[in-house]
Structures are given as structure tokens and as C-alpha cells.
Specification:
With about 240 residues, this protein is mostly helical. It has a single domain (about 5-225), classed as Four Helix Bundle (Hemerythrin (Met), subunit A). About 70% of the residues lie in helices and about 0% in strands. The chain contains ten helices and two strands. The protein has a two-stranded antiparallel ribbon. Helix 8 packs antiparallel against helix 9 (about 205-225). The longest helix has 27 residues, at about 5-30. It is globular. The two termini are about 35 Å apart.
């Protein structure tokens, strides 16, 4: 298989996210929330592997006709932002004015964030919360907190998108990657399991989701507070 064909196949893999987003949206319209999240988890897996493949097969050089970054952003907005916001609004977890505040904050703030050329830090982490609303909303479905707690979390994260708070990229952030990667794989597993059992509150997947979510949400901020060990700097 030629390098050009490999690069094209990576682009086509990224594009499958659009199909997965449509399947998720169709499930959401029918209020089949567990099925919707299962499709979104599959989309998250695709999004996790297409980036490393794109770098490995040098898609910008071998198939520059397609803009993989733009394609990825389009799919991400659908799967990370638009569909989860719709689900949160229509599911009944939020009603009245809090629901309207949340859906506007998510979709409006995220489209501005996605257009920000400063969203990546020097160590390939994210500057500000990276609009991973699919993960946030799935956890909300799993733990079902009170409306005001959901409202507070969403508004806080929406504001955090436009701060210098650091959020790790589990694949590209070198520091603590040996822990971040297993935590991310664990989150995906627990998310899929929670959706599979229709968010049964008795499922042990709930605790796995909470633990892995707390790590992924705070690891980058802790890295900002705690500088790397001098020995680690010399090794790198």
C-alpha cells in the first residue's frame, strides 16, 4: 500500500465521524440516550486513533488535498458539542431557564473556542477546557446531579474554555502520559459500560467514570502548579 493511499484512508477514517454523529443524532431524536452515547463513544475512539495515524502517515504531505484538521473540527463540533448539548436540553436533566442558559453557553462558547488559534499549549495540551461536552454530559447522565449543580458545572467549564487553565491531551501531552493513557482508556471503557447498562445507578461503572473524569479534568491544572522534576527535564 502506497503512502498516499494510507494517507487517504486516514482522511476517510476521520470522515466516518460524520456518519457516527448522524447515528447518534437519530438516536437522540428518538430519546434513546444510551444508544446515542454508545455511538458517541465509538466516535470518541475514532477521534483518538485518527490523529496518531495522521501523524504517522504524514497526511499533510501525502494527501494535502483534504484538510484533515478542518475535517476533524467539523466532526468534533457535532460529536463533542452539538449532539451532547441537544441531549442535555431534551433529556429533562435541565428544565426552564437553566436549560436555555446551558445550551446557549455550550454551543456558542464552543464554536468560538474551536476557532481560537491559541487552543494548544507548547506541550500539546489544551489552553482552556477543550469543549469535551460529550464526556461531561455522559457523566451527568450517569450521576444525575441536581439541576443547579449541572448549571454550575457547565457555566464553570464554559468560562474555563477562555482561560489559561491547562487540560491535558491524553495522547500528545508527554508529562504523565503513562498514567493519562490508561485513565483515558478506562474512561472510554466505563462510559461504554455505563451506556450499555442504561446508566444503572448501581453499576460499578459509575465510580470508574468519576475517578477517571476527575483525573482528566484536573491533571493539567496540577501540572501547572507542580513543576516537572529537574531530572525529568534533563532526560527530555
Amino acid at each position: 500500500m502506497t503512502p498516499r493511499l494510507k494517507a487517504l484512508l486516514v482522511h476517510l477514517l476521520t470522515a466516518t465521524g460524520s456518519v457516527l454523529s448522524m447515528l447518534a443524532m437519530l438516536a437522540a431524536v428518538e430519546e434513546k440516550w444510551s444508544l446515542m452515547f454508545l455511538w458517541l463513544v465509538v466516535a470518541l475512539i475514532v477521534d483518538g486513533v485518527d490523529g496518531p495515524l495522521a501523524r504517522r502517515y504524514h497526511v499533510k504531505t501525502n494527501w494535502p488535498t483534504y484538510d484533515g484538521v478542518l475535517m476533524d473540527l467539523i466532526v468534533d463540533y457535532l460529536t463533542y458539542v452539538f449532539i451532547p448539548a441537544f441531549a442535555l436540553f431534551k433529556s429533562g436533566l435541565l428544565t426552564g431557564w437553566p436549560g436555555w442558559c446551558v445550551i446557549i453557553a455550550i454551543v456558542y462558547g464552543s464554536v468560538v473556542y474551536f476557532a481560537d488559534t491559541r487552543m494548544k499549549t507548547k506541550d500539546n495540551s489544551f489552553a482552556g477546557f477543550p469543549a469535551c461536552w460529550n464526556m461531561v454530559v455522559l457523566v451527568m447522565f450517569a450521576i444525575k446531579p441536581p439541576e443547579m449543580v449541572i448549571l454550575f458545572i457547565v457555566i464553570a467549564l464554559a468560562v474555563a474554555m477562555f482561560t489559561n487553565l491547562k487540560f491535558i491531551h491524553p495522547v500528545r501531552t508527554d508529562r504523565w502520559r503513562a498514567l493519562s493513557l490508561p485513565m483515558t482508556v478506562g474512561w472510554v471503557f466505563f462510559a461504554g459500560w455505563a451506556a450499555w447498562v442504561d446508566f444503572d445507578p448501581k453499576s460499578w461503572a459509575l465510580w470508574g467514570l468519576i475517578i477517571s473524569s476527575v483525573y482528566l479534568a484536573t491533571a493539567g491544572i496540577v501540572q501547572q502548579i507542580v513543576p516537572p522534576h529537574p531530572l525529568a527535564r534533563r532526560i527530555r
